[in-house]
């Protein structure tokens, strides 16, 4: 039995006039795939932004890997191995796939502040970058600018970039959003593959994917946790069925 | 920057046919650059009027010299002024730079002209530094300076009982110098200075400065500024009821154009020191009327008159020695006294100061004024020897060595 | 003489009053800037130049057409507003889809053109413009002599600022404006001609600048550079107040005028710098300004 | 096609946001007094379709006929003036306006809009909150009611509703459903974008499924039950 | 703003073209004064070209428009002028000092303004620069309206007399080339790669663990230092340092140079500076019409010519 790598306690975020996330106690077990689901506007992305420190919580604490990161800066938690993706694909559009991945590889090298060094010192990272691209099936796109990749490939590139940082926890915000069946299958397989020795927390709408991949599911509604458990447990929950599938009326 | 090359054909080119024996004058032409403020707060007192005056001097000279006149706007910025001067000298072969109001610009130009052996005669600048620490063998200071102004106005006002002063000073070389000189005169004559405030060049709102002057309780508010700054300060002082409140304004440097701009209603009673008044003698009237014909009836300021006088004197000297080297011509100018409508028995001293009589004048009331531009009553003539800093006090290296 | 912290009381009160007068101009100008920024997302660098034009229109009306101050007080803003409308229609409106910085650059270029043209024709020394007959003279307030015209400046500017605030906060038209600031698209989808509204807003806001200009004409001399340095102070005020905040711009404008007055009494050398120092401090403590909402 | 005269007819509609081509030839029609829903997954182009009808996309081509007139080249305000009202996905409540100001904001474009009292009757919650400060202080459900309520005043007869149930509690969803049905009874024509398929299924007369920017299928109310499995797959539920 | 910038970037043959252009440029720099061009004009041009290149580092490569670069330019000039004239330090040291002080100011301004974006950043830098302007108006060492005048040109290590304008010219050329190379290297370095990442997708860079603000501040500091270098050199060339150098018109001028030349291109700012300085020189006879012409160019550039000369050429070549 492994411990919890990521925990939130009483996590709350208030925006002018309304509460987006309310008193959320989330526990993510190390080495699992944990999905966060719920209808649009339930606060999933806000949760993500809070955990990765892109937003400052109004109340509550966040613990990651035994440390309190409630007050940490977003780049610090990323350096500690808590790395996120974004809902809209987060590539560097006018850089090639290789350069995209290399930007992530470059960060831990400490080269990034060296404005007096020539660019080609980065070429030593190319091999590792190619490996990563291969791992996500992008070998043939190494020199392609990210902007001209098809949508699904962009998501794959994003995952390769994230993987380059060797994260302990990957937070994926709707990795399947806007994908066709074919892409979904590929990215699902990819997520399964990369989750081997790390933790994944993801927000996803596609319940099939969620059912297929996740060990634990947390259902959010209106900023609060509605239910938590395995897919079977959660899908049996009547409240969840109502909230998620909708009941119509009467 | 405005470099107006005047076509020579009709006016400035004199004696085309006789230009044969001018081996000593570089490229055969004497080029005079009129460098002054053509768009700013000193544009009225120098500006186009100085160009007109220089042109008249060239026409009147009539000798067998080829003369070309250039003009430019230095915008009262030292960097602009010095780079125009440099370019004129390096590229256009200018032999004489004339006028240059705004002391800071004149000092910058002085650096350039003394490095390049170019003659420089200032009519518009006021600071005495030009003939002291910063003096140069190529330089003549023609019309007035802060010393002369302070002797005239400072002394007269203290003698009338204005024995406590507060200065409103333009925050650059000229203002500082004028303030210091006047302070000395005031104190020598038994008055005291209770304070001063510095304002930036081209200030639009003097209200807070005037308020400080008012609360200082000084009897006299000395305006150590010039041109548009002076008229603005006087106008606003009027609206804040300062004179009605019992304080007296002393414009340390006032030009006839300032009085014209203010109108006699506001300006009446002001005491000024000037090097020239158009309505003083027949000669000055004759010049001024010719000047006025070309300037929509405007009468010349002392700067304009000085430019005419200086250019005429320069051309005479250059023709005499047939040379246009800066030091050579200035040396020649120093040997001959200046005698024209502007100066009687004027003399250019070793330090470059042209000394001549100055006049203490008072602005007429509207009732006293009988014709256009009839603005001054001459109260006293300050003899040349008293008006200017004695040569023995000069710190100019040309004198001390 | 009574003193406060070693400063004669009349001087202190006098400086504060003068500060308030300056603040009245700041408020009028920063209000216009805030409105333009709110609705068009443009930082109007030409605001200072248009303020100057307001003064010049007044001067021009007087010297060339013999039209006096009171009609000019209405005509000058109208003329400047019309010029603003032309600027918006022909140039600014073509930049809305681009980065907002282009609006700043365009209006910067316009400011150069306008100021350059006026300097060319009128020089920088300034033209005199006398206060109207009814407002000549002044009142002795005991601590200082207040020229009647300057008193009127405060009153007129407060009336216009308050009126604008009412218009924006309390009318249906104002509701359209406020809504358009938040979601211009949706407001347009409700059937409101938002581009027209933007044009009129720009026209109105620069008319405010024109009004400030004609109001300033008798106080300062009418000079092509009168708006040049003022505009940057007003920028700082808008940043301090919070970009786009109507009330913030008015209050901050008046407040900064007073602070400048105070500084002029106690540390005159710092009086032109103080507004920028305040801006830096505000930015460090409250990046979105005193009255602004945090931007997401 | 329904037997009723078409109030809105969309033919080969293409739409772009900047460089990205979102709609690739959408075809459908809405009859007078009908409730029609557009279904599809996230990013399929449902919202873009509504926005394209309102003229709120970067560029569009094709034909959009409203009561027989071509409106594809009109600006959004002209389109709205013809009596088409739009209720956006995030509800579009204005934070700087009070509840009442929000409600009164959209100008009346045609006679025959609902009087304010009737709107309050439809959404009683709003009446209680109308004097409250900012419109964004309302709960999600109240905001949705306000968003729908305010376009009823304008006299527009064709309502475009984008995901009115998004993020709302079941009980509120029921309330909204009842209101939409009332609106249909009052003679409004409604084009509805929904993710909550069950909600849409009970309200709409017909459904169109959009995928990758084209309409891929069409269901009548009666088809729904038989073809549920197929539909589930299409929607990826 | 960055859209146009990004379109200009292409790979491959660009590097070779750059080398050829660089060689031509170097040849022009060496020959120019020998074929009778006015050295003072050329020196002015190079000072402003360096200024524009430094400025472009922020606008073109970080995507932040600073409207306050005159503060660094002017302060570089004042510090160098004061050090050389009053303290009597050597010319090289004076110029170095000017650059360092400007760099430190850049660090401070950066720390205050860098978290803001777009217009906010522009306005704040403008206001901060205006604060510096007023400081320079008041501070005794700048001599207010008078400026620092008569700065001696001095010598290089006592060997080369810089009063000789040809010697001064090659000295300025060396500084310009050095500055230009620093800009070039910065852009094409791991740091430059990081800046590109930030410009393309800032949030993603944060999520990759980059302390984005620190990178921007460093870029701002480099830009300010080089700007100070340009200002200091200008002060030595013209032997004056005045308020013109810190006035916001100067900030506007450098924006215009970069815009007309092509922001986000290596040579754009140089070309832009060349165009503007030449234009100012030839239009000098037109008095204050110069301002009008500058403004008109500004408006035309913004409305129709946003890629600038070099940007336009590159786009055509593609």
From TrEMBL, chain A:
<feature type="domain" description="ABC transporter">
    <location>
        <begin position="6"/>
        <end position="247"/>
    </location>
</feature>
<dbReference type="GO" id="GO:0005886">
    <property type="term" value="C:plasma membrane"/>
</dbReference>
<dbReference type="GO" id="GO:0016887">
    <property type="term" value="F:ATP hydrolysis activity"/>
</dbReference>
<protein>
    <submittedName>
        <fullName>Branched-chain amino acid transport ATP-binding protein LivG</fullName>
    </submittedName>
</protein>
<dbReference type="InterPro" id="IPR003593">
    <property type="entry name" value="AAA+_ATPase"/>
</dbReference>
<keyword id="KW-0067">ATP-binding</keyword>
<dbReference type="Pfam" id="PF12399">
    <property type="entry name" value="BCA_ABC_TP_C"/>
</dbReference>
<keyword id="KW-0547">Nucleotide-binding</keyword>
<dbReference type="InterPro" id="IPR051120">
    <property type="entry name" value="ABC_AA/LPS_Transport"/>
</dbReference>
<dbReference type="InterPro" id="IPR003439">
    <property type="entry name" value="ABC_transporter-like_ATP-bd"/>
</dbReference>
<dbReference type="Pfam" id="PF00005">
    <property type="entry name" value="ABC_tran"/>
</dbReference>
<dbReference type="InterPro" id="IPR032823">
    <property type="entry name" value="BCA_ABC_TP_C"/>
</dbReference>
From TrEMBL, chain B:
<keyword id="KW-0813">Transport</keyword>
<dbReference type="Pfam" id="PF13458">
    <property type="entry name" value="Peripla_BP_6"/>
</dbReference>
<dbReference type="InterPro" id="IPR051010">
    <property type="entry name" value="BCAA_transport"/>
</dbReference>
<keyword id="KW-0732">Signal</keyword>
<comment type="similarity">
    <text>Belongs to the leucine-binding protein family.</text>
</comment>
<keyword id="KW-0029">Amino-acid transport</keyword>
<feature type="signal peptide">
    <location>
        <begin position="1"/>
        <end position="23"/>
    </location>
</feature>
<protein>
    <submittedName>
        <fullName>Leucine-, isoleucine-, valine-, threonine-, and alanine-binding protein</fullName>
    </submittedName>
</protein>
<feature type="domain" description="Leucine-binding protein">
    <location>
        <begin position="30"/>
        <end position="364"/>
    </location>
</feature>
<dbReference type="GO" id="GO:0006865">
    <property type="term" value="P:amino acid transport"/>
</dbReference>
<dbReference type="InterPro" id="IPR028082">
    <property type="entry name" value="Peripla_BP_I"/>
</dbReference>
<dbReference type="InterPro" id="IPR028081">
    <property type="entry name" value="Leu-bd"/>
</dbReference>
UniProtKB/TrEMBL annotation, chain D:
<dbReference type="InterPro" id="IPR003593">
    <property type="entry name" value="AAA+_ATPase"/>
</dbReference>
<dbReference type="InterPro" id="IPR052156">
    <property type="entry name" value="BCAA_Transport_ATP-bd_LivF"/>
</dbReference>
<feature type="domain" description="ABC transporter">
    <location>
        <begin position="8"/>
        <end position="237"/>
    </location>
</feature>
<keyword id="KW-0813">Transport</keyword>
<keyword id="KW-0029">Amino-acid transport</keyword>
<dbReference type="InterPro" id="IPR003439">
    <property type="entry name" value="ABC_transporter-like_ATP-bd"/>
</dbReference>
<dbReference type="InterPro" id="IPR027417">
    <property type="entry name" value="P-loop_NTPase"/>
</dbReference>
<dbReference type="InterPro" id="IPR017871">
    <property type="entry name" value="ABC_transporter-like_CS"/>
</dbReference>
<dbReference type="GO" id="GO:0016887">
    <property type="term" value="F:ATP hydrolysis activity"/>
</dbReference>
<comment type="similarity">
    <text>Belongs to the ABC transporter superfamily.</text>
</comment>
<protein>
    <submittedName>
        <fullName>Branched-chain amino acid transport ATP-binding protein LivF</fullName>
    </submittedName>
</protein>
<keyword id="KW-0067">ATP-binding</keyword>
Automatic annotation (TrEMBL), chain E:
<dbReference type="InterPro" id="IPR001851">
    <property type="entry name" value="ABC_transp_permease"/>
</dbReference>
<feature type="transmembrane region" description="Helical">
    <location>
        <begin position="86"/>
        <end position="112"/>
    </location>
</feature>
<keyword id="KW-0472">Membrane</keyword>
<feature type="transmembrane region" description="Helical">
    <location>
        <begin position="119"/>
        <end position="141"/>
    </location>
</feature>
<feature type="transmembrane region" description="Helical">
    <location>
        <begin position="254"/>
        <end position="277"/>
    </location>
</feature>
<dbReference type="Pfam" id="PF02653">
    <property type="entry name" value="BPD_transp_2"/>
</dbReference>
<feature type="transmembrane region" description="Helical">
    <location>
        <begin position="20"/>
        <end position="41"/>
    </location>
</feature>
<dbReference type="GO" id="GO:0005886">
    <property type="term" value="C:plasma membrane"/>
</dbReference>
<dbReference type="GO" id="GO:0015658">
    <property type="term" value="F:branched-chain amino acid transmembrane transporter activity"/>
</dbReference>
<keyword id="KW-0812">Transmembrane</keyword>
<keyword id="KW-1133">Transmembrane helix</keyword>
<keyword id="KW-1003">Cell membrane</keyword>
């Amino acid at each position: 039995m492994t411990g919890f790598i990521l925990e939130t306690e009483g996590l709350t975020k208030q925006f002018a006039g309304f509460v987006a996330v309310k008193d959320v106690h989330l526990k993510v077990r190390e080495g699992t795939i944990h999905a966060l689901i719920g209808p649009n506007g339930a606060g999933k992305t806000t949760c993500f932004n809070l955990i990765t420190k892109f937003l400052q919580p109004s109340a509550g604490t966040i613990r990651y890997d035994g440390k309190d990161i409630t007050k940490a800066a977003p780049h610090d938690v990323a350096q500690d191995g808590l790395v996120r993706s974004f809902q809209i694909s987060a590539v560097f559009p006018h850089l090639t796939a290789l350069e995209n991945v290399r930007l992530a590889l470059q960060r831990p090298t400490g080269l990034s502040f060296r404005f007096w060094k020539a660019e080609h010192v980065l070429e030593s990272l190319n091999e590792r970058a190619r490996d990563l691209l291969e791992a996500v099936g992008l070998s043939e796109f190494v020199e392609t600018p990210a902007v001209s990749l098809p949508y699904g490939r962009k998501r794959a590139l994003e995952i390769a970039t994230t993987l380059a940082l060797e994260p302990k926890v990957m937070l994926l915000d709707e990795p399947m959003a806007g994908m066709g069946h074919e892409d979904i299958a590929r990215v699902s397989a990819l997520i399964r593959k990369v989750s081997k020795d790390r933790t994944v927390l993801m927000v996803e709408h596609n319940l099939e994917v969620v059912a297929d991949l996740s060990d634990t599911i947390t259902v959010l509604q209106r900023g609060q946790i509605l239910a938590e458990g395995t897919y079977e447990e959660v899908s049996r929950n009547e409240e969840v069925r109502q909230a998620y599938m909708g009941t119509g009326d009467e | 920057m405005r470099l107006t090359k005047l076509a020579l054909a009709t006016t400035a080119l004199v004696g085309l046919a006789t230009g044969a024996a001018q081996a000593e004058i570089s490229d055969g032409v004497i080029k005079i650059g009129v460098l002054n403020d053509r768009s700013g707060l000193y544009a009225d007192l120098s500006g186009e009027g100085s160009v007109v005056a220089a042109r008249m001097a060239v026409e009147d000279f009539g000798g067998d010299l080829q003369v070309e006149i250039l003009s430019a706007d230095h915008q009262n910025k030292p960097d602009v002024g010095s780079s125009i001067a440099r370019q004129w000298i390096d590229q256009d072969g200018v032999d004489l730079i004339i006028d240059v109001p705004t002391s800071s610009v004149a000092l910058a130009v002085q650096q350039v002209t003394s490095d390049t052996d170019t003659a420089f005669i200032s009519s518009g600048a006021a600071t005495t530094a030009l003939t002291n620490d910063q003096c140069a063998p190529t330089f003549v200071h023609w019309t007035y300076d802060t010393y002369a102004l302070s002797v005239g106005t400072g002394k007269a006002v203290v003698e009338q009982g204005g024995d406590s002063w507060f200065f409103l000073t333009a925050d650059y070389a000229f203002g500082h110098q004028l303030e210091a000189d006047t302070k000395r005169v005031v104190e020598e004559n038994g008055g005291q200075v209770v304070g001063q405030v510095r304002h930036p060049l081209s200030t639009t709102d003097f209200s807070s400065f005037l308020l400080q002057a008012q609360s200082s309780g000084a009897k006299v508010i000395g305006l150590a500024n010039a041109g548009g700054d002076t008229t603005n300060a006087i106008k606003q002082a009027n609206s804040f009821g300062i004179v009605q409140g019992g304080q007296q304004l002393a414009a340390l440097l006032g030009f006839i154009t300032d009085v014209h701009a203010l109108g006699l209603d506001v300006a009446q009673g002001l005491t000024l020191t000037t090097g020239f008044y158009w309505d003083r003698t027949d000669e000055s009237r004759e010049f001024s009327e010719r000047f006025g014909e070309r300037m929509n009836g405007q009468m010349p300021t002392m700067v304009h008159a000085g430019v005419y006088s200086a250019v005429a004197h320069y051309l005479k000297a250059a023709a005499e020695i047939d040379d246009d080297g800066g030091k050579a011509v200035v040396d020649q100018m120093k040997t001959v006294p200046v005698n024209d409508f502007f100066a009687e028995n004027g003399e250019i001293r070793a330090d470059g100061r042209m000394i001549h009589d100055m006049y203490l004048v008072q602005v007429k009331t509207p009732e006293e004024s009988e014709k256009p531009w009839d603005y001054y009553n001459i109260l006293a003539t300050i003899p040349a020897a008293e008006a200017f800093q004695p040569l023995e006090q000069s710190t100019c290296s040309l004198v001390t060595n | 003489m009574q003193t406060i912290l070693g400063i004669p009381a009349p001087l202190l009160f006098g400086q504060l009053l003068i500060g308030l007068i300056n603040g009245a101009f700041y408020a009028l100008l920063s209000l216009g800037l805030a409105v333009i920024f709110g609705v068009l997302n443009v930082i109007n660098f030409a605001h200072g130049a248009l303020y100057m034009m307001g003064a010049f229109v007044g001067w021009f009306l007087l010297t060339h057409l013999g039209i006096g101050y009171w009609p000019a007080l209405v005509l000058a803003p109208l003329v400047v507003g019309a010029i603003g409308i032309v600027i918006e229609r022909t140039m600014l409106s073509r930049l809305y889809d681009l980065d907002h910085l282009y609006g700043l650059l365009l209006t910067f270029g316009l400011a150069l053109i306008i100021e350059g043209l006026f300097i060319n024709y009128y020089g920088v020394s300034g033209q005199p413009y006398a206060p109207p007959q009814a407002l000549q003279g002044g009142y002795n307030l005991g601590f200082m002599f207040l020229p009647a015209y300057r008193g009127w400046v405060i009153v007129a500017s407060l009336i216009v600022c308050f009126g604008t605030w009412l218009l924006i906060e309390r009318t249906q038209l104002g509701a359209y404006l406020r809504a358009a600031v938040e979601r211009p698209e949706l407001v347009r989808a409700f059937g409101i001609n938002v581009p027209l509204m933007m044009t009129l807003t720009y026209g109105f806001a620069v008319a405010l600048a024109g009004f400030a200009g004609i109001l300033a004409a008798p106080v300062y001399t009418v000079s092509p550079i009168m708006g040049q340095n003022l505009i940057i102070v007003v920028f700082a005020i808008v940043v301090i107040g919070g970009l786009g905040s109507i009330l913030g711009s008015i209050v901050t404008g008046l407040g900064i005028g007073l602070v400048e007055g105070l500084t002029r009494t106690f540390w005159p050398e710092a009086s032109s710098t103080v507004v920028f120092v305040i801006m830096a401090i505000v930015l460090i403590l409250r990046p979105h300004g005193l009255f602004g909402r945090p931007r997401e | 096609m329904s037997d009723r005269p078409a109030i809105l007819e969309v033919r080969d509609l293409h739409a772009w946001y900047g460089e990205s081509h979102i709609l690739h030839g959408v075809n459908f029609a809405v009859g007078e007094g009908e409730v029609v829903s557009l279904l599809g997954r996230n990013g399929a182009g449902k919202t873009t379709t509504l926005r394209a009808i309102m003229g709120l996309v970067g560029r569009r081509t094709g034909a959009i006929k409203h009561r027989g007139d071509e409106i594809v080249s009109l600006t959004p305000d002209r389109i709205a003036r013809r009596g088409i009202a739009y209720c956006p996905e995030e509800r579009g409540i204005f934070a700087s306006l009070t509840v009442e100001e929000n409600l009164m904001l959209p100008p009346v474009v045609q006679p025959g809009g609902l009087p304010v009292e009737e709107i309050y009757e439809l959404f009683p919650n709003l009446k209680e909150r109308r004097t409250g400060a900012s419109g964004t202080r309302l709960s999600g459900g109240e905001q949705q009611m306000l968003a729908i309520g305010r376009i009823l005043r304008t006299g527009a007869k064709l309502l475009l509703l984008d995901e009115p149930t998004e993020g709302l509690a079941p009980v509120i969803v029921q309330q909204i459903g009842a209101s939409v049905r009332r609106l249909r009874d009052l003679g409004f024509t409604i084009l509805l974008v929904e993710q909550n398929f069950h909600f849409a299924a009970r309200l709409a007369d017909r459904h169109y499924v959009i995928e990758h920017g084209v309409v891929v299928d069409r269901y009548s109310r009666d088809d729904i039950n038989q073809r549920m499995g197929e539909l589930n797959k299409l929607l990826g539920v | 703003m960055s859209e146009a910038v990004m379109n200009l970037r292409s790979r491959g043959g660009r590097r070779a073209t750059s080398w050829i252009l660089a060689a031509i440029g170097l040849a022009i720099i060496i020959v120019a004064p020998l074929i009778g061009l006015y050295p003072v004009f050329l020196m002015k041009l190079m000072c402003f070209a360096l200024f524009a290149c430094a400025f472009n580092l922020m606008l073109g490569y970080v995507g932040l428009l600073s409207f306050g670069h005159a503060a660094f330019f002017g302060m570089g000039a004042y510090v160098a002028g004061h050090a050389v004239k009053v303290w009597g330090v050597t010319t090289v040291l004076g110029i170095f000092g000017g650059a360092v002080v400007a760099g430190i100011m850049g660090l401070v301004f950066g720390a205050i303004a860098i978290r803001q974006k777009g217009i906010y950043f522009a306005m704040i830098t403008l206001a901060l620069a205006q604060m510096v302007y007023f400081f320079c108006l008041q501070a005794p060492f700048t001599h207010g309206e008078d400026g620092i005048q008569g700065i001696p040109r001095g010598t290089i290590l006592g060997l080369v007399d810089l009063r000789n304008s040809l010697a001064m010219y090659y000295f300025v050329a060396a500084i310009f080339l050095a500055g230009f190379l620093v800009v070039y290297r910065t852009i094409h370095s791991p740091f430059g790669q990081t800046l590109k990442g930030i410009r393309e997708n800032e949030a993603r860079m944060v999520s990759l663990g980059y302390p984005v603000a620190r990178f921007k501040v460093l870029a701002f500091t480099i830009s300010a230092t080089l700007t100070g270098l340009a200002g200091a050199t200008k002060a030595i060339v013209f032997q004056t340092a005045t308020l013109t150098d810190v006035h916001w018109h100067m900030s506007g001028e450098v924006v215009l140079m970069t815009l007309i030349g092509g922001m986000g291109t290596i040579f754009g700012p140089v070309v832009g500076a060349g165009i503007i300085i030449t234009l100012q020189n030839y239009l000098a006879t037109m008095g204050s019409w110069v301002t009008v012409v500058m403004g008109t160019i500004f408006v035309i550039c913004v409305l129709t010519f946003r890629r600038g000369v070099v940007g336009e050429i590159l786009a055509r070549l593609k």
